[in-house]
What does this fold into?
Amino acid sequence: MKKQDYFKENKIGYIDYKDVETLRKFLTPHARIQAGKRSGTDAKNQRMLSQAVKRARFMGLLPYVSR
Amino acid sequence: MSTTEDHKAEVYELGYLVLPSIPEDSLPNVVSNIKSVLKKAGVNEIAGEDPMHIDLAYTMSKTVGARKYVANDAYLGWVKFDTTPDKISSVKDSVEKIEEILRFLIIKTPRETSFTFAEAHKREVEREAKLEEAEAQLEAGEVKEVTEAVVE
It folds into this structure.
């Protein structure tokens, strides 16, 4: 069965880079961004998610690499 | 052809990290410095949160003159405002000149604020309380089971 889009399910229209708790759900243990196929997010939300993660990394809220 | 008058106001967000070497009681000075920069640029403030202490995910550094600051923690704050796109570069240039700022980010954002650190903190506290309650219930249930077994 196809995985549901987390952002559609929770009616999140804008992914904020400061919302680290949500962003962390979509990172691998090495702090890489999970593939859209794996996370179930649609293409539009996946683009927004990757933008938010990159902004959070720049501001030191998330690591670029881990372990 | 678009002229300056034709520029439509856009909503921007300025997120900033303040150096950890700044004492906590002089943080309001830094915030008022930023706000005065925004005021001078003639922008209209919508929302924002004062800087709060966070641990950084990696070490950052900033060189001011001959001095190099290395930071593992910082104060993170943000302010949302609307202005025309032609004014944003002057905001960027002025914020760059504030020495107490370790790093900053200006982005376009929707007008509605969907996330604040205050709300996130509240959610976290509620979640922890629920978790503790569930643990207590589980423990009480287990104790009851053990007592029943002993009685039998």
